[in-house]
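Hi X.,

You mentioned you wanted examples for the new student's onboarding notes, showing what a folding record looks like when two proteins sit in one file. Here is a clean example. The first protein comes first, with its sequence line followed by its structure tokens.
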Amino acid sequence: KVLTSDAAGLASWQTLSAPAGTGLVKLADVTLGAAASSISSGTIPARAYLKVIIFTATGVEPQGGVRLRFNSDAGANYDYREKINDSPETSVADTTGLAVIRGDGGAGFIELEIRNPAAQNKQIIHHATNQPPGDAAPTMRRMAGSWANTSDQITSITLLDTGGANILGAGSRMIVYAQE
């Protein structure tokens, strides 16, 4: 809301709305009712730009198998460059998903922005943090990644433990937005 005044000088609050085509629309909002090995957006409409927010409730255990995948693609079609805390950057090529969270057993927050053209690799910008149990400093993760698929747009997003353990606590949530 914005405070405005009319010609007589009377103040009033006015609600402003964004011009059509400039806002975000929610495509999916999923919350786990119990611990699970994965959380998925379900099928979402294909859009050119996506924003994904994931909250992982306490329960992510230390393991390298926590991955983000698109359209159920478990092939070695994901590449990324990441930086965790103050460590040097590392590059990972031809892997079976994006390692978007570091398992420390604490709650996590993941944010992704995705360019999603049908005929090009999908580009991903990723930021994440998770809070280890106790008073330890939170872990910070930054990544630039891609999904090598030049024939389809992303129509589903899944965060999973490839080993099948119930690593995501009850209350973990995934929200997917798209540009109008």
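Then the second protein repeats the pattern, sequence line and then tokens:
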Amino acid sequence: LARLKKEHPGLPAIEALDQIQINFLMARLYGAQHSATTDPQRQAPLEKQSADAFAKLDAAMGAYERLVRNDKDRQLFGDVRSIMAEYKTFYAEIQDRSRENRKDEVAAMIATRGTPLGKRLAEALGKLIEFNKTTAAQQQQDAQAATRMSHLLIWSLTAIGGALIGLLGWLLMRNITGPV
């Protein structure tokens, strides 16, 4: 299974991308909830939840990075990683200001920096996902072609084997019933 995943990483890569998207959205959700409250007792668990989401996000990014298969994939993933690093820096700034209850400043930062960063990240992830879907479709076509070829090979070898058995049977019968 490990060798199969290494040779054909399409599905594990798509699974890792799903985890990247899910955990990024969870971190954003916890961040929005954090910035919407001024109660430190509500902010503390939200900070932990967002930290956990970012930890899972990092794990998913690491899992995907091990599955990168070519220069195009590496470049697309590099774009995602770069924007994600930029977003994490932005997120830390937002969280600091939110802890200080500077809600107007947080709202302005989200509007001017957060929303464009989120859009850039969504576009970069979209390109990477599309690349992986195309790759998975190509792998499926290659597998189907290999299956057809193996079926043809099996039937050809079966026919050749049958012909050889028939020839050997005919030669044996000829030797048994032939003149002495």
